[in-house]
Design goal:
heterodimer, A: about 260 residues, B: about 350 residues, Rossmann fold, globular
């Protein structure tokens, strides 16, 4: 699976990856007037609405809710958008796959990369909100990169599994839509984990996306190194899913064309 | 003798062109009369003429799936004759070696593509009986570098499947193909063109899909633009292109490489008359440079002119593999007994 063919293929089609990422990003807001600016505006508006609802309507007491929420929201969005994009990538590029040979995983990898770039752009909003809310800037901020990268590895793994499955079963898409919504509510994005009694709080730790969010909050809000235990568990889960994803994708990719 | 013949031919051509000119003049007269009759303003008559031009361009083949997927063999006899004089250099090196190729498709009566149906049918045990369809059955052949191979067969013989396997788009169910050298499959022009991209951006996107490197495309960029004859339009989003322009662009990108193996599904001639000749010449110069060529064509005549060796497929079996005239003669003999459905679109002479 990891032989020379894989490496030489990757270098040959490196430029394809760049072009696919470019196409994704350019295509995303192609007809909108504000264009890329939506990458800032989207999380900002959501944050304003939810801050209002949870700080004033539900009177939840989270220290610096805007930053708490944005960290979770951006991380979760990265995972959700990357996996959904990867899931559709094979079907939406069917016309190319049916006519020309190219490494098919490039499409899944391409959407994940473009979502990562989108995430990086919207981080600017987070920084602006941190300045606006007088949040302290800790040195530990740079460690945010650890949960983010682990989350990307997880997203690639899950994305490859989903891309393979949807090619054979179209309705995985709808099933995953429900799943991702459940996952969102289970990731403590706009509420603190303390809503659950202490003895049930371990349930959050079963959710790898929550582990990544908690790690990012450690680095950004608390100003400490991301929870090591969480990061190790996340890394193990991410690598396992990546290996499973690569395995089933490679195993079934030659059959894709018969089902497209 | 020869000169006499060509002189009489020339005379014929001149006569024909005079007649054409007369006909055109008459048409123009009619047009003027129409204009006068309806007192068309200058702008609307211009519009009228423009739509006339556009519609003539629309005759070029181009469909949503992609350019070049349709058959177009409006090459005149003279152009074909030029192909006949191509140099034919065959070396001892093997270019393609196919061993026991088989391709099997599952022809389920209903396509099960959702989980619910799959689970229910699995439980009921309905999923098991599959209708297998052998598109290719145990093909073996070796092709040396420089050979030009024609592939003939009735409709549904497996010609296109074979080309797709050779191009690497499909993996055979059994057997394997060994290829040596760079393959340029001209099965599809302009794959992955993005409508919102300009011609320039699409050159790079389409090039990347075809597996070219950035540096390569940058160095060949001017050549591609020049060959495509698009000029200023290269900076315009391709959603504003005519079908002819799109196929010109697609052809220019696809043929910029110097491949070792060329795979053609029908000889592609695209665009207007002038570009057709130009693209034909380009293919000719590619074919004449000692590369290996695979050509599927519905025209036996074209195969005879271009190829020296022919593979004849029938229902996935390799019926004959040998000298072009021998195989083509046998093929035509059999065709006399073939059904009309099998012969649809096929030119025997």
């Amino acid at each position: 699976m990891f032989d020379n063919r894989f490496i030489s293929n990757f270098t040959k089609y490196k430029f394809l990856l760049v072009e696919l990422v470019k196409r994704d990003i350019k295509g995303k807001y192609k007809d909108s007037v504000l264009g890329l600016f939506w990458s800032f505006l989207n999380p900002l508006l959501t944050m304003v609405v939810l801050t209002f609802i949870f700080s004033y309507v539900f009177k939840m007491s989270i220290k610096n809710f805007p930053v708490y929420f944005l960290t979770g929201y951006l991380m979760f969005n990265l995972f959700s958008a990357a996996t959904n994009g990867a899931m559709d990538s094979i079907k939406s590029n069917a016309s190319i796959i049916k006519k020309i040979y190219l490494p098919k995983y490039m499409f899944a990898l391409g959407t994940t990369c473009s979502e990562l770039i989108n995430f990086a752009i919207s981080l600017v909003v987070l920084i602006l909100v941190m300045i606006a809310t007088n949040a302290p800037f800790h040195l530990s901020l740079i460690f945010t990169i650890i949960p983010v990268l682990l989350l990307v590895v997880l997203a690639i793994g899950v994305g490859l599994i989903l891309a393979t499955l949807t090619t054979f079963f179209t309705d995985i898409k709808y099933l995953y839509g429900v799943f991702i919504m459940t996952l969102m509510y289970a990731s403590a994005i706009f509420y603190p984990v303390e809503v659950l009694p202490v003895k049930y709080q371990f349930l959050f730790e079963l959710n790898p996306v929550y582990l990544a969010i908690a790690g990012a909050r450690d680095a950004i809000l608390t100003g400490v190194f991301p929870n090591v235990k969480y990061m190790i568990v996340l890394a193990v889960v991410a690598v396992i899913l990546l290996v499973i994803g690569m395995y089933i994708f490679y195993k079934y990719q030659d059959k894709f064309i018969l089902y497209l | 003798m020869m000169s006499d013949k060509s002189e009489s031919k020339n005379a014929e051509i001149i006569e024909r062109s005079i007649e054409d000119a007369k006909r055109k003049a008459e048409k123009n007269k009619n047009l003027i009369i129409v204009k006068k009759k309806y007192r068309l303003s200058k702008t609307s008559s211009q519009l009228f003429e423009r739509t006339k031009l556009d519609s003539s361009e629309d005759n070029d083949f181009w469909d949503e799936e992609g350019l070049g997927s349709k058959v177009n063999d409006i090459t005149t006899q003279e152009e074909d004759a030029e192909f006949q004089n191509l140099p034919y250099i065959v070396s001892d090196e093997v270019a393609i070696k196919a061993e026991n190729l088989s391709m099997e498709f599952n022809l389920n009566q209903e396509k099960v593509d959702n989980l619910k149906e799959y689970v229910i049918k699995r439980i009921k045990g309905e999923i098991k009986p599959k209708n297998h369809f052998l598109a290719l059955n145990n093909l073996s052949f070796t092709v040396n570098k420089g050979e030009r191979i024609g592939i003939i067969g009735f409709n549904g013989a497996g010609k296109s499947t074979l080309l797709k396997i050779l191009a690497g788009v499909m993996k055979p169910t059994e057997g394997k193909v060994e290829t040596h050298g760079k393959i340029a499959p001209l099965l599809e022009l302009g794959a992955g063109f993005d409508n919102n991209y300009t011609g320039e951006e699409n050159i790079f996107l389409n090039g990347a899909i075809l597996g070219y490197q950035k540096e390569f495309l940058e160095s060949k960029y001017d050549e591609i633009v020049e060959f495509s004859e698009l000029g200023e339009f290269i900076k315009v989003p391709i959603k504003n292109y005519s079908s002819g322009m799109l196929s010109k662009l697609g052809f220019s990108v696809a043929t910029i490489v110097e491949p070792d193996i060329l795979i053609l599904d029908e000889v592609l001639s695209v665009g207007d008359v002038k570009f057709k000749k130009k693209s034909g010449n380009k293919l000719k110069s590619m074919m004449g440079s000692g590369i290996t060529v695979f050509l599927v064509s519905h025209s036996v005549d074209q195969i005879r002119k271009l190829c020296k060796r022919v593979l004849w497929l029938d229902h996935g079996n390799l019926v004959m593999d040998g000298d072009v005239d021998e195989v083509c003669d046998a093929y035509i003999e059999t065709a006399k007994e073939a059904s009309a459905e099998e012969l649809h679109n096929i030119e025997l002479y």
